[in-house]
Amino acid sequence: MKRLFFLLGVLVGAAIVASRLKKWLFPYESLGEPARAVEPELVYTTASGQKYHRKDCLYLQGTMSPVPLEEALVTHEPCTVCNPPRLTVHA
Ligand SMILES: [Zn+2]
After folding, report:
1. 25 and 44 share a domain?
2. Cα(55) to centroid(ligand 1), Å
3. Long-range own/partner contacts, residues 27-30 (CB < 8 A, 24 or more apart)
4. What is the pTM of this model?
5. Is residue 74 located within the same domain as residue 59?
6. What one-character DSSP code corresponds to residue 45?
């Protein structure tokens, strides 16, 4: 009987180790789908600037407003410092 409990303990231990190992190997599996670009990509413009920026650009100071990328492309140029995303146009 003692031997049975020992075996059970080994099995449970192995299961715990396996689940930890899995978490270590696939850390993002349990988080579900990562946030993909389902929502429109946002860039940032300033009231006076002619360019649009990433959110963390050092040129973004004071008033900045989030604008969908498609919209910003019409009225603004991409910043050369923060290199914001641009839409690739397939001809
Ligand atoms: Zn910028």
Report:
1. no
2. 8
3. none
4. 0.53
5. yes
6. E
The 3-state DSSP class for residue 54 equals coil
On whether the CB atoms of residues 43 and 54 are closer than 8 A, the answer is yes
Q: Are strands 42-46 and 51-53 parallel, antiparallel or unpaired?
A: antiparallel
Q: Are residues 51 and 67 in the same domain?
A: yes
Q: What's the domain range around 55?
A: 37-91
Give residue 32 CA to ligand 1 midpoint distance, Å.
32
As a residue count, the chain comes to: 91
How many folded domains does the chain comprise?
2
Q: What is the pLDDT of residues 19-59, one digit of tens each?
A: 777 777 776 666 666 655 456 689 999 988 899 999 999 98
CA of 87 to the centre of ligand 1 (A): 16
| Same domain (yes/no): 49, 91 | yes
